[in-house]
Specification:
The protein is α+β, with helices and mostly antiparallel strands. Helices cover about 35% and strands about 15% of the residues. It contains 22 helices and 24 strands.
């Protein structure tokens, strides 16, 4: 039997696995990245794009912490757009279409070039654990099984003190196109079925979710003369704070829509759609519905937009964003040819749905380490999320925390006020999921502070403290902070018609360009555009920002009431039975997190706070009852 020794093993080389493996290796851990198909490292399984509303903020945060996604999309993007420019700055979100193969190859090269990181094609079949009790004997803080590695097909063992699982949609995966079914988590690939059995043996709860993807068509067969062009930004903005400028050519996207004849075809074939025939009974993403769902749920709408997105510079393949489907192939043929501009279109890949296992994330600690097995971490779609960006963010934090744990350093748990990543992880481990989780700006209560433009100021110091931020990146942040400080010094000192320039800038009709006309000192300032943008935004929203900062300070008083790791919620006599059970399952780390657990009432929190502060008094009270 072959045996290989590592500090950390990462299972899966998608967006989560790559960030986890790179982070762990860069923090000094000897890391193995195992994938069942080495040719698909970093593959974009669904849409060829990075970013979007709230997702763009996540990519900026990944970059600020020292992750890789932002830099690679800057290199390989073929169209860049800042979404929501007509709204407030907190809603601005960068998005880029990618050359999906260029992105994939660039990521694979990053992995291959990384010191301390070994990329191997292996099919993982079993987790190796020491100290395992039976499934019906839950692990406790004092007796917790420890991960020791994984077994792969053929019998070889990869020994490690930590394992990060990032299996995406491949656990017990089944693909559906109409009545046809086949095993696999992505077209042309297989499934990791036996790994689900290993999780169940360890006592993990698994459930099923579903996702889908649309047809891809040959761009040569599209009639572009009758559809609407969607160009990128004239001055594209990079994702990474380390990218000086986007230099490559941009390609247009195109816009068309469905129509009533298309909807009629879909309605007439719902009995052949797996989601409606009973073939699939798992839950799919509500905010990225299939075209079947759109036609049924929004029956009053006569059309739905379709964005035709090129998949690369060196291919004619076009992604039909907006018509994800699992209808049979013959129905897909009929639908496509009823759409304006696609009357003669040739389908290159048919759409399909994927059903897969995931592990409800309330089984995790905020570090993404599992509660049941020490040293075992979950990241990405195994946690019930959807999206490349959400997966990459989880992978980065799981890889960081696995490496920090091995060197006995303090773990990294981001607060909800620090970033969208903090919001996402807290939502997952505290509230769980009832449908595939997707990040939205509305999920972040402090979104005015968590803008896409200031992620470096929020999180690069955190990345620096952990050890992922380079000297060059740190110097850039220091220069950026100096630029902002210099700008505010001028705006607060220089006056025009009795008011400071800062007061002028608070007016809705006054921007930086106006200040340059009012003052030669402002026009002479040699600072970067990003610094000007942040100064303008923070000035205009200063009142709201102060209010949110006050809210954060007030909430911190509750968040700082720590709950001991060994705390026995069932010993709190005055807590309701439901509260005891839910808090014991989630195991919140502080009172603030406890309050966000589904079903926990203010009365429960009051009892818990009193018990934490005066346990002796509560114990005596319970004895006298």
């Amino acid at each position: 039997m072959s045996r290989y020794d590592f500090d950390i093993v990462v299972i899966g080389a998608g967006h989560a696995g790559i960030e986890a493996a790179l982070a762990a290796a860069r923090l000094g851990a000897k890391t193995a990245l195992l994938t069942m198909n080495i040719d698909m490292v970093g593959a974009m399984s669904c849409n060829p794009a990075i970013g979007g509303v709230a997702k763009g903020q996540i990519v900026r945060e990944i970059d600020a912490l020292g992750g890789e996604m932002g830099r690679v999309i800057d290199e390989t993007g073929l169209q860049f757009r800042m979404l929501n420019r007509s709204k407030g700055a907190a809603m601005w979100s960068p998005r880029a279409q990618a050359d999906k193969k260029a992105y994939q190859f660039a990521m694979k090269l990053r992995v291959e070039d990384q010191e301390n990181l070994t990329l191997v094609q292996e099919m993982v079949e079993e987790l190796m654990v020491d100290g395992l009790r039976s499934i019906d004997q839950p692990s406790t803080i004092n007796h917790q099984p420890q991960i020791t590695g994984v077994k792969v097909r053929g019998g070889a063992e990869y020994r490690a003190r930590a394992v990060v699982v990032t299996t995406g949609t491949f656990l017990q995966a089944v693909m559906h196109t109409g009545e046809a079914k086949s095993a696999g988590g992505r077209a042309g690939e297989g499934t990791t079925g036996t790994l689900s059995d290993s999780f169940r043996v360890l006592g993990f709860e698994l459930e099923r979710f579903k996702t889908g993807t649309p047809a891809r068509i040959n761009g040569r067969t599209i009639d572009y003369s009758v559809i609407d062009e969607q160009p990128g930004d004239a001055e594209p903005q990079a994702f990474s704070y380390m990218t000086n400028r986007i230099e490559q050519e941009q390609l247009p996207c195109w816009l068309t829509e469905t129509n009533e004849p298309v909807h009629d075809i879909i309605r007439n074939n719902l009995h052949r759609a797996p989601m409606y025939s009973g073939q699939i009974d798992s839950t799919g993403p509500r905010y990225c519905p299939s075209i079947e769902d759109k036609v049924v749920r929004f029956a009053d709408k006569s059309s739905h937009q379709i964005f035709l997105e090129p998949e690369g510079w060196n291919t004619r393949e076009v992604y039909c964003n907006g018509i994800s489907t699992s209808l049979p192939r013959d129905v897909q043929d009929e639908i496509i040819r009823k759409i304006r501009g696609l009357e003669r279109a040739e389908i290159m890949r048919y759409g399909y749905a994927v059903e897969y296992d995931f592990a409800p994330p309330t089984q995790l600690k905020p570090t993404l380490e599992t509660q049941r097995v020490e040293g075992l971490y979950f990241a990405g779609q195994i946690n019930g999320t959807t999206g490349y960006e959400e997966a990459a963010g989880q992978g980065l934090l799981a890889g960081i925390n696995a490496a920090l744990k091995l060197r006995s350093d303090e773990s990294l748990v981001l607060d909800r006020s620090q970033g969208y990543l903090g919001v996402m992880i807290d939502d997952l481990v505290t509230k769980g999921v009832t449908e595939p989780y997707r990040m939205f700006t509305s999920r972040a209560e402090y979104r005015l502070l968590l803008r896409q433009d200031n992620a470096d100021r929020r999180l690069t110091p955190v990345g620096r403290r952990v050890g992922l931020v380079s000297h060059e990146r740190w110097q850039r942040l220091e220069q950026h902070e100096s630029d902002i400080e210099c700008a505010f010094e001028v705006l607060r000192r220089v006056r025009h018609q009795g008011n400071t320039l800062e007061e002028w800038l608070r007016r809705p009709d006054i921007g930086w360009s106006h200040l340059c006309k009012l003052s030669s000192e402002v026009s002479a300032l040699n600072i970067a555009n990003l610094a000007k943008q942040q100064v303008e935004t923070e000035t205009k929203y200063s009142g709201y920002i102060r209010r949110q900062a006050s809210d954060i300070a007030r909430q911190a008083k509750v968040e700082n009431v720590r709950i001991p790791e060994t705390f026995d919620f069932h010993a709190v006599i005055h807590l309701r039975r439901e509260a005891k059970d839910k808090l014991s399952m989630v195991r919140p780390q502080n009172l603030g997190q406890a309050g966000r657990v589904s079903g926990i009432t203010p009365a429960d929190l009051a009892v818990l706070m009193l018990y934490l502060r005066e346990p002796d008094r509560m114990s005596k009270s319970s004895q006298s009852v």
